């Protein structure tokens, strides 16, 4: 995400001036030289951009705690695990080997959630590693997956509740752990920011008083609509499912599940007919 860089490739020994996009901050020297194939300052460091004022992703969980195998140099203020979830890309956590020479990072979510993604960010806000999860597990996606030796485990500290809906597009758990499998105490578990994204519950609706169920309901939960007198289900379907924060009709898979007054429904269908006529 560095800007003001001349068209690559740059010849060895060429001096280059760097800057960052809006909402980013340059960390390092603004003037570098192409040295051995890398843009480096006089100390051999490569500058990079840091994202400022990031916001939570849709469905991102705020963990209740973060920990790792040990902290680099024992310096919690500088390298503590909490820096990986502080929404500040200028800070980072840095793990050291534990007594068994293992390196790991762990998040406690606070409740069982249906995790859809785990994203390990670079300082510029672009993902370094990204795992997508289903009912069969989580798979790493991205160009760096084969270059680094990490494993992701999502587990539960207790037995899963019996009333969780059966879903295929996420993995239930309340604990997320990343392990370095390089061995020999080579940690490499340095994290600017780690995001855990879950499928969202359906927590509210403008028409929630007309439903036969109590909100919130979990993602994947099947629901049934009961409309009052002089109302009908929109689209004629009274069955639906909570789909990542939205109550969706089962038949269409797209339309929001809702009741409408008969007069409103007639007006709505008239609007659709006129819209279709215009499109024709």
Shape: elongated
- Tell me the number of helical segments per DSSP (H or I, 4 or more residues long): 2
Number of separate strands: 19
Helix-strand topology string: EEEEEEHEEEEEEEEEEEEEH
Task: Report the average pLDDT across residues.
Answer: 83
**Strand composition percent:** 35-45%
Question: Structural class of the helix and strand makeup?
Answer: mainly beta
Largest sheet: 7 strands, antiparallel
Question: What does the radius of gyration come to?
Answer: 25 Å
Return residue spans where pLDDT drops below 50 for at least 5 consecutive residues.
Answer: 265-269
Distance between the termini: 45 Å
Assembly state (oligomeric): single chain
Helix content: under 10%
Give a short overview.
The chain is mainly beta and 280 residues long. The chain has two helices and 19 strands. The chain has helices at 76-79, 262-279; strands spanning 15-17, 24-27, 31-35, 38-40, 48-51, 65-68, 93-94, 103-121, 127-134, 137-141, 150-155, 171-180, 190-191, 193-198, 222-224, 231-233, 239-243, 246-249, 259-261.
List keywords for this structure.
7-stranded antiparallel beta sheet, about 280 residues, about 10% helix, mainly beta
Could you characterize the architecture of this molecule?
By secondary structure, the protein is mainly beta. It is built from two helices and 19 strands. The strands form six sheets. Strands 6, 8, 9, 10, 11, 12 and 14 form a seven-stranded antiparallel β-sheet that branches. It has a three-stranded antiparallel β-sheet with strand order 1-3-4, with no helix packed on it. A three-stranded antiparallel β-sheet has the order 15-17-18, with no helix packed on it. β9 and β10 form a beta hairpin.
